Amino acid sequence: MSIKNTGSRTIKPTHPGEMLREDFMVDYRLTVASLAEALGTSRQTVNEILRENRATTPAVALKLSRLFGNTPEFWLNAQRAVELWEAEKHYKKQIERIRPLNAA
Fold it and tell me: Which of 8, 54, 55, 71 satisfies CB 3.0 to 4.6 Å to 48 for a cystine?
């Protein structure tokens, strides 16, 4: 048995890049270069995440969770929420045409 989701989110969820840019980098006084160095990745990768042009991958989520002392699920759930919201908007008409099945 499942619970029906009758509501639809109207505001886009916060991208992990925005969280990094607006909260974590400020609180820890990080620059793009220092964050890239701490993560062992390129400045280009960090910049693309911060500009919300790149998704947070499981590998990046593991690195961020180690660096900031939270969980990789925190970062991946934020990314998942953004991707689901975008997919829902993009495929809305196709999804509405699908008729739900009833169990026998």
Answer: 54
